[in-house]
Amino acid sequence: MKLHGIGVGSMVYGVGYGFARPDFATAEVEAAADGSLTVWSGASELGQGLRTVLCQIAAQEFGTDYQDVRVVSADSEKTPDSGPVSASRSTYVQGNAVLQACRDLKEELRSLAAEMLKADPSTIEFSGGYVFSTTNPENSIAFHILTGQLHARGRRSHGFGWYDNHTEDVDKETSQGDAYSSFAWASQLAEIELDTETGEVTVLRIASATDVGKAINPKLVEGQIEGGAVQGLGFALLEDMKVERGVFKNSHFSTYILPTAADVPPIDPIIVEVPDPKGPYGAKGMAEPATIPTTPAILNAIADACGKWLKSTPAIPENILHLLGVLPDERKEALSIKDIPYPPF
Amino acid sequence: MSEFQKTISQAVRISQSTGPVGQSVVREDAVVKATGRAVYAADITRPDMLYGKVLLSTEAHALIKNIDTSAAKNIPGVHAVLTARDIPGENVYGIAVADQQVLAEKKVRFFGEPVALVAAETPEIAEAALKEIKVAYEPLEGVFNPIDALKEGAPKVHEAGNLLLHTRVRKGDYRIGFEQADVIVENLFRTHGQDHSPLEPESGVAWFDGDGILNIYSSSQYIFRDRKQVGRVLNIPINRIHSVNTTVGGGFGRKDDVTVEILVSLLAWATQKPVKLVYTRHESMLTQTHRHPTIVRIRSGATASGKLTALEAVVYGDTGAYASLGIYVIKKMALHIGGPYYYPHYKADSFSVYTNNPIAGAFRGFGILQAATVHEVQMDELARRLGMDPIEFRLQNCLREGLTFSTGQVMDQACGIAATLEELREYVKRHGLQFKKHPEHQEVER
Amino acid sequence: MDDTNYITMELTVNGRRVSKHCRSGRRLIDFLRDDLNLMGVKEGCGEGECGSCTVLLDGKAVLSCLTPMEKAIGHEVITIEGIGSANRLHPLQEAIIEEGGIQCGFCTPGMIMSGVELLARNPHPDRAEIIAAISGNLCRCTGYQKIVRSIEQAAQKMSSS
After folding, report:
1. Is the ipTM above a cut-off of 0.95?
2. N or C terminus of chain C with fewer C-beta within 10 Å?
3. Containing domain of residue B7, as a range?
């Protein structure tokens, strides 16, 4: 018999390291005479698209095109140390460092533009490839002319940015305190079909509502949401890491089964934007939030279908048949709730 | 103008009008990757380069009585065979705690732990040399789950004992909270491990310049920490190490920790030639970190009207033979085991525990994938027992501005959980989906 | 090294005649990467499970990590480097760039080769045919959605041009 079900999973994720761990990023930016920009960032591009996002942030700040920005990343003889790329922190922390580097350099550019335009520096804005005073936008200088003058007059063409995201540690005894400087939020819905004879679970669709604060690049955000959901689906249904007496038994791709295109349902990314005032343009971390809710959404959809919650992952056919009572549970290592007492208050 | 160039120039126009933030501009590395020209660590070659291989432990817990490398060293084309004794600096590293040996010295603590290194002129010769290294092990009793590992008299993975960290979270008084509860759901959960499987296995190339500068090109999430750790093991000042991130073929937390950087640098130091070390998929899976398997006992209570009152949980995280980031993963799990909901009373304990299992470390989710698996089944079961819609029950209890997290931290206006749930509520409606009724679950009349 | 371990590889690679005296008994991927410097051919598992090393052998998608190099003698091999370049992209390369079907990029060359083979034998594939064609190519980053869409879009581009 084929049973059908839907389920929801939600999560909160403290972005960054917390616990008084170093959580900083550094960046430098240079405006060349022709208006092209170089950003030095110590953070690694892992494929998530960080460098593209940093290009966009710098271009936004200088009012230029993102293709005029080049990001040089993670080379100890070129870039400053920016901390690790992990904990969903890079857009947030590295993005803020780049923002600060740009704003540092903009101070110099702003004062030069004010001199050239005979305007108050506080009225100078950067937009659409031009620099102008808001009091008289007609009177403008092309950005590349301004940077040309910056170099011709021997002015400062470098900006430096540092952003510190660290929090104090929580109390040692009670863990009370401000643990994280930013939180990320996500909820997913999974629709599944469960074959009661084979124990097989097929995911029919996933809807992923992920709060990213601000999608600096919506397509990259979708990529994280879709890829994250599939990693979660792999964990829930396929990737049964078998370890027997310390030996990882299925440590080959022939036996450790990763999701293929054929295992993946349509995924509907729903980008939610509740801005974080501390994030660059309101952005939050989102790489991990995109993968976390998938497994619980699937487990709850299984329960919606058959009335029982699987409490021992993964939801491979064997475990589902145990759950349905079709197969007797003969696992040796079975633990009971009594074996796990709660520690004292 | 091709279609592609048109798309690009269109993107340029859009960004010029409103600024690029918020635009789906094409990624800056898309063309180099689509044309196969992106340079990953394994794609780097140097003149006179050697190939490194690593001999992995075939025991999960054993004393090393002897390592005989003489036959391997005599194979033509082999330039170096290294064991722990050859390490010029300290034989230790670790991302959070320096508890891991670069090459196993007196004992091995997991199946797949590096024991010896070879550098040879071809990968085939290096492979042949590995087979000639004879390691005499004296097997020790091992410990393979965190509950057993904490028992009195359990075999010790490390001298100081198997408990890496105990985290306590105490907010309010859970006893009061459970007294107020009309429905209590209690469960035991077990979550399994997961392999990150980035499509690019861990890879690196290292060489010394004539002036003694060590160059390391590797696939890493944090070259600056790799560099510090290499310096300590090779006894080289950090400023004489040049670390470069190549194109990275996926990380997901796996490459947050040191992968091949120290090993390939040791071989470059010993041979004074460029050395490339690329793990096979199998070696990658055995040697690198994984997602923590966990055991969680939890109970959560709610009033008949659907308000959460209390949570009590205990988490056991199996961090394997070395800590990696297992301290913070399992600590974070204790803080997040209640999920994005407001509990006035919250009591959670987590234990990060050493075993002789594969190492667990950072993996996309960092303990919260496991936590969410637990707290979301709890929420669903509570909703069903209360006869409430699962989304409404979550919305009724989710964190909002002014409410406090498990640590007492007050949520600010950036708290977005309700917005994500409202989106799903709309989605369910729009697509005509429905939660099934399971009358057998319901305890509370509505 | 003993000369009996050497062989002359004569074949066509990316449209060019190649004649190379080199060590024998290796895999096609080793010959392509180590002897011809075609580094776009990626090794993700070496066991024929991930598809990263996919190349075309006489127009058919093959796993170069499972193919003995000698099997390519006298035949035609096309790798990602022979599909298109930055200033002359193949429609599928254009599509995967525009759709955002690339993240870490490690699976991308193999994925594109499987897609190119599909489009050559079936210019109007449906979704199921696309999924079947790339189901031997693992991707750990994208969740496949945008890759499938890229192939759909490339099919449209190719039929309208």
Report:
1. yes
2. C
3. 3-38
